[in-house]
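Example record used in the benchmark description.
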Amino acid sequence: MLRRFVPPMLWLVVVAMSPVAHACSSCGCTLNTDLGSQGVVSGIRGWRIGLRYDIVDQDQLRSGDSTVADPALPSADEVERRTRNGYYTLSLDYTFNRRWGVGMELPYLDRYHSTVAEGDATLSTSDSQSLSDVRVLGRYTGFAADMSTGLLFGLKLPTGSKGTRFDSGPQTGKLVDRSLQAGSGTTDVLLGMYHFDDFNGSSGWFAQAMYQHSLRVDAGFKPGDSLNLNLGLRYYWSDSLTPQLQFNVQARSHDTDADPSAHANSGGRLLYVSPGVTFNAGEGWHGYLFLQFPLFQHVYGLQLAPTRLISAGFSHSFGQE
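Model output (structure tokens):
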């Protein structure tokens, strides 16, 4: 058991701490809740539908590895105070056969943001709800008979809104920073792979890696490249209940932006630990609930980061073996 656990765990930690990997610790949830890549519903042909809700409340101002106090106002730099995000994600998945499948994620974002702009002494806020960028992913699982290894490939499409404006404070009517818009305005390529296996009859593990790269610049803005890594350990408590522990890494480079300060205040790397549980309710129904806590956060410039994240969801499979 230890021989099979240590190699993927060491690989994950090395990447998380590598100085050449960069991430934005203020980004969304990095949790893996894809039942296919975990092996929970592997081999089931047909449709699967899911709904997931993530709460990401960024209320901790950080620079580098540390928290920082709010600077005196007015300041020569923008000082963000809070960004509260609620992500509602509808997923549709279809498995054609034991080798090929395709999935789509349709995210809806509910975001409240407050900040004190450069030179201001009072808050400006925005409260918006809009569609975010849709992701379409194909997968190939023909490497092994048990479908335990898969290749992921697809696109993030520029479907999200870029028109969110401040609705109160000195910045009323002005556009919110591009990195805080629901949509990036760019088409991004997605490439990844996953593998799952059992240690024995009562426990198992899974790992997934996903790389994202923007194919173009939109009005001077281009999101930084990102790499997400997930390692999950699970114990088969019963037929209906499976406790799980995940380690989630996100690495992201600087965004490209016409505003130099926005460019400087993006990028870094993070490592989360995520305890949770998955449920099998029978007749194709599954659910899950997870908490995420940061073990390591490093950000470039001055950024808001969450102290915890909450994810919950369910899915239903209409297919058959």
